[in-house]
Amino acid sequence: MTSSASQQRLRARQLRLSYGGPPVVDGLDLDVLNGTVTAVIGPNGCGKSTLLRALGRLLAPKAGSVLLDGARIDKMRTREVARVLGLLPQSPQAPEGLTVADLVARGRHPHQTWYRQWSSSDDEAISTALVQTGMGDYAERAIDQLSGGQRQRAWISMALAQGTELLLLDEPITYLDLAHQVEILDLVRRLNSERGVTIVMVLHDLNLAARYADRLVAMRDGQVLADGEPGEVLTERLLDEVFGLKAMVVPDPVAGTPMVVPISAHSANHADGEPVAEVAERSA
Amino acid sequence: MTEREKPTAVGSSEHTPTEGAIRGVSCPEGGLHGTTVGVGVGVVGVRLRWRALVVVGASAAVLVLAVAAHVGLGSYHISMLDVLRVLSGGGEESQRGAVLDVRLPRALVGALVGAALGLAGAVFQSISRNPLASPDVLGITWGAGVGAVTVIVLAGTSGQISGIAGALGLPLASLLGGIAAGLALYGFSWRRGLDGYRMVLIGIGIAAVCANLVFWLLTVGDVTVAARAMTWLTGSLAAAGWSEVPAVAIALLVLAPATLLGARVLGVLRFGDDTARGLGVRVDRARGLLVLLAVLLASVATAAAGPIAFVALAAPQIALRLCGVAGPPVVASTVLGGVLTVLADLVARIAPGGVELPVGVLTAVLGAPYLMYLLVRSRREARV
């Protein structure tokens, strides 16, 4: 983390992004630190997913640039990018009846050519990916027959089979129950520690983001308002600035990472205001 | 401030102390190698699916048998042995005439046209991610119909086109009509990417416009000309002879391998656009090329034999179910397209009642219930 910015593999410089209308992201700078897990947080419509799409070369910048290993990503060949950088869209679609093994095998696409559509290294990568995500027993099952958590693990297996050193995940735990959210994030963490994959993910759950990410990037209105370790970023002032949320930040009793406890009108009424004031005092 | 109170450790590997490094799961190789096999020589390699291999092999055998039956059966029956004798250069004069001049070219055109339709259907269905997308439903064959009927009406009614120009003009005009409809389809469906559902809706619109153009042309033309046009419009192999074989064969020799090479990309295009791009596919370019190839395949087939209905719709769906895969398999769809067309034409030719039916009537009669089945089935899935 002490390395200088120029050594980071994935960077954004003065990035402006739009879908034809007014810019969704404007003048954004970001360095994705090598070998870390970064979570991008922010309110709905703040440009998180748009930023992730640009980092993954799905969206060409209107101005500025995304640099992958020093080269402008939008000038690189799609396949070259796909060998280095994998991505998982928000709700990926697969054809009905596709098996997990077939899905994961597609992850090898960027490493294949029209004449070499298979090599033994493909089988190795597929097997390893299935084992690492615990999906080996489900290889011949159809994706649509799996539970939400298993399905997400199958997609992550595909991204793993792609064998990239960078991985972008757009809301990987949305629509999953809490147990599966934790399961997927544990998997993400393990990929980072065991494979050294650099991961950028968009997350909505601030507490899980703080627990699982090395670094939080807080966005509002297409700007990065804070960028750093969860403890530095997730403060009461920032929550107010970014989300307009009155909240207390207390240490997570399990992991010790910052935990956001919202203060709402309802909770104040419910507790007659007293306990809130009490705890707020203590934390201040 | 709160951050002072809490430990400095941020999320790291300490989150997973209770969990093993790798979950205890059996190696997936049994599953992976049970259904597919990788074959590689030097830098060339391909992954084959056992079940698909069996389906393609069996379909090819059925195709050969169907062509043989097509050549042998009929009001003038020729035994298998005699067919073989004729093919090896012997046989009686009358048998030689029936086999070589009439039935064999017709069966071959049927097989080639059906193969082209099956392949085109597999591409359209994969790209639109919709089983209803076939050249008939998308208006490509109706576009070809406009071209063909224009030539038939102009040649028959006012004598503006006659003789060789008329003979050459018909396939050429239907080819151009099909390509024009295909370009319109792609152009109108493309809005910052191609949405399969929109493509089907636009295709239905194009089909309706072209169909009405055809009916207008029929109204304008003579009654006798209209009758000739109707025969063409139902799709018939009755007039197919050796003159059609080289054109269709050459077109297939160029288009089919190009399309089959794109099959690898087709498998990735069946995912969403973002996923496909993430896997290194230049989505718009790849899809544009594949649609162009499919339009050409469908147009060539229609130019040779008229719009033979439902082969392009049914063959990929049957192939998909036989192979047990998620998307239409291209090779199996191609072979099964040939099988369907040759068998349908055989039945149309030897059907009892003494009247020979155009093959398109038969495929439509068989295909319509199948289309309804697909519609009912897709509605049920949409509700789940």
Structure report:
Chain A is α/β, with parallel strands linked by helices. Chain A contains eleven helices and twelve strands. Chain A has helices spanning 48-55, 78-84, 100-106, 120-132, 148-161, 178-195, 206-212, 230-233, 236-243, 265-270, 274-283, and strands at residues 10-17, 25-32, 37-41, 63-68, 71-72, 85-88, 166-170, 198-202, 215-220, 223-228, 247-251, 258-262. In chain A, a hairpin with a 6-residue loop joins strand 11 and strand 12 (258-262). In chain A, helix 4 packs antiparallel against helix 5 (148-161). Chain A starts with 9 loop residues before the first strand and ends with a helix. The relative contact order of chain A is 0.14. Chain B is mainly alpha-helical. Chain B has a single domain, classed as ABC transporter involved in vitamin B12 uptake, BtuC. Chain B has helices at 29-35, 50-72, 80-87, 93-128, 140-158, 163-189, 196-220, 223-234, 244-261, 263-269, 273-278, 283-305, 311-323, 330-350, 359-383, and strands spanning 36-41, 44-49. The longest helix of chain B is centred in the first third of the chain and has 36 residues, at 93-128. Residues 1-31 and 379-384 of chain B have low confidence and may be disordered. At the A-B interface, helix 2, strand 6, helix 3, helix 4 and helix 6 of A face helix 1, strand 1, strand 2, helix 10 and helix 11 of B.
